[in-house]
Amino acid sequence: MLVAIVLGLLVLLGGIGAALAADRTLLNVSYDPTRELYVDFNAAFAKHWKDQTGETVTINQSHGGSGKQARAVIDGLAADVVTFALAYDVDALRVNGGLIPAGWISRLPNNSAPYTSTIVLLVRKGNPKGIHDWDDVVKPGVSVITPNPKTSGGARWNYLAAWEFAKRKYGGDDKAREFVTKLYRNVPVLDSGARGSTTTFVQRGIGDVFLSWENEAYLAQQELGPDQFEIVYPSLSVLAEASVTVVDRVVDRRKTRDLAEAYLQYLYTPEGQDIAGRHFYRPRDPAALAKYADTFKPIELFTVDEAFGGWDKAQATHFADGGIFDQIYAAGR
Amino acid sequence: MLSQIRSRSVLPGFGLTLGFTVLYLSLIVLIPLSATFLKAAQLGWEGIWQAISSPRVLASYRLTFGASLFAATVNLVFGLLVAWVLVRYRFPGRRLVDALVDLPFALPTAVAGIALTALYAPNGWLGALLVPLGVKVAFTPLGIVVALIFIGLPFVVRTVQPVLEDAEAELEEAAASLGAGRLTTFRRVILPTIWPALLTGFTLAFARALGEYGSVIFIAGNLPFVSEITPLLIITKLEQYDYAGATAIAASMLTLSFLLLLPINLLQAWSRRRTGGV
């Protein structure tokens, strides 16, 4: 299987290499929900780069589940920059391939996360089950849609947000564990990714509440009309920092470091921040955030670092094999 | 030794063709498969045992092999029926039906999964009719069986069809003229003829179902211990960058499949010899 994968990648890389001979290109490997965002941003950056340097660049984008994309890059997909759903997936490039140096997260401002998102509750029109906060999600008889945290980055944010809410409100990890166990008792389907869950909730009509990325919730509302779904902001949620970085091994080989660095820095400019806001990602820049104040309701947010001591720890405790998530399902058999 | 083989062979060039065959098989099948086992070996025996024997993985084996076996059995019965109708009867649109049988081969399995899920979801065309009767298909093990039946059907039809076409109707007429009833004719004359082909079709459908991922993943619901198939667990391991653990489960599945398929193949060879080869 490995040989087949390697052969396939060689063919793929050869193909990309041949296409790249003329102008310079950049490959941005990202996760699912940013597709629309980067279509806009790439066009803006290409124009900006042309004005600045006179060089024409083509920016290619690749989307898929965050973890799956990280594995593709580790296995040899020549990404100049990666823009993933969480720092843990970016850090996998360092741990599993040595593609980026330690300390990559402080190379750009705000933990290398130019925009953030959070987890909200998407409910059906009229909110028939009366869902206003996390407490309502774990009530008996409420059907909850969320992807599997073992395979989806977004689902890990959902889980941690619910955990921290219960920990603060009821005090202690034991209570939090009880709370999260109740939550997953209410889940009838565990999709493998965030987009799959959106489909289950929106198209298949399953579930009373969908634990969703804020931007996915707005996107679903925009595509299907605001008369079908309502967005409920819980009293506490998680600050989801989507980290980005230049892939050093690749840019040094392809001689694209200047271009790749400028590309990521452009995300922090007023224009880049405005594009993020337009696509329902929370900009870091206060001015851009103010412009979209109607969209981004103020909400108390905590970070994974302060609540869980960082992603490595959260991953090992909760999502690794035999971790708390596995125990929850093993106990309920 | 080699010259002996060469001189016995009717066709020339045996050495060259055998060499090519072995090389080709090695490149395409054997090396990738042994890479799976080598990668898994990194874990050591204890690590491998831990990876492949956790309760969650065992539950997924039961589901995967059980659902595959059940789906292949359903295909055995209804695949024979479809092949029979296509061979023995002439009706308008027969060629179209014949072509439709191949569709599950051509369709990307993910598309099949999405289509089946849309159909059987509680708000889908069939789901809306079944749910009031208390039958839940989508997001249950039953959904997995439905998907596996869908992708496995062509195997039985396409292996049995040519054998049925070759079987002469005169044999049945002879049986009838000697006083055999329809059931006896089927049991004593037709079934022995097509039995090896049926077994082949069954084996292929079963093997295909074991490795199926794309169509199942959408309709299964993927709940641990309930509707989680083994291929999903392999993907789950990969998502955690646990390559060795993933290949350990993959290797165990390969071994189990081999242990199951080998007896079926032996049975098939035996019955083929017994019926004088078809």
From TrEMBL, chain A:
One BP annotation, GO: sulfate transmembrane transport
One GO CC annotation: periplasmic space
One Pfam family, short name: SBP_bac_11
Signal peptide positions (record): 1-21
UniProt KW keywords: Periplasm, Signal, Transport
Predominant cellular place of this UniProt entry's protein: periplasm
GO molecular function: molecular carrier activity; sulfur compound binding
Listed PANTHER family: SULFATE-BINDING PROTEIN
Protein name per the record: Sulfate transporter subunit
From TrEMBL, chain B:
GO annotations of cellular component type: plasma membrane
CDD domains listed in its UniProt record: TM_PBP2 (cd06261)
UniProt entry tagged with the keyword Transport: yes
Nucleotide-binding is among the record's keywords: no
Membrane topology value: Multi-pass membrane protein
Keywords: Membrane, Sulfate transport, Transmembrane, Transmembrane helix, Transport
Subcellular location field: Cell membrane
InterPro entries, A to Z: CysT_permease, MetI-like, MetI-like_sf, Sulph_transpt2
Chain segments annotated as transmembrane: 12-35, 63-87, 99-121, 133-157, 216-236, 243-264
Principal localisation: membrane
Its biological purpose: Part of the ABC transporter complex (TC 3.A.1.6.1) involved in sulfate/thiosulfate import.
Family per record: Belongs to the binding-protein-dependent transport system permease family. CysTW subfamily.
Record-given protein name: Sulfate transport system permease protein CysT
Source organism per UniProt: Immundisolibacter cernigliae
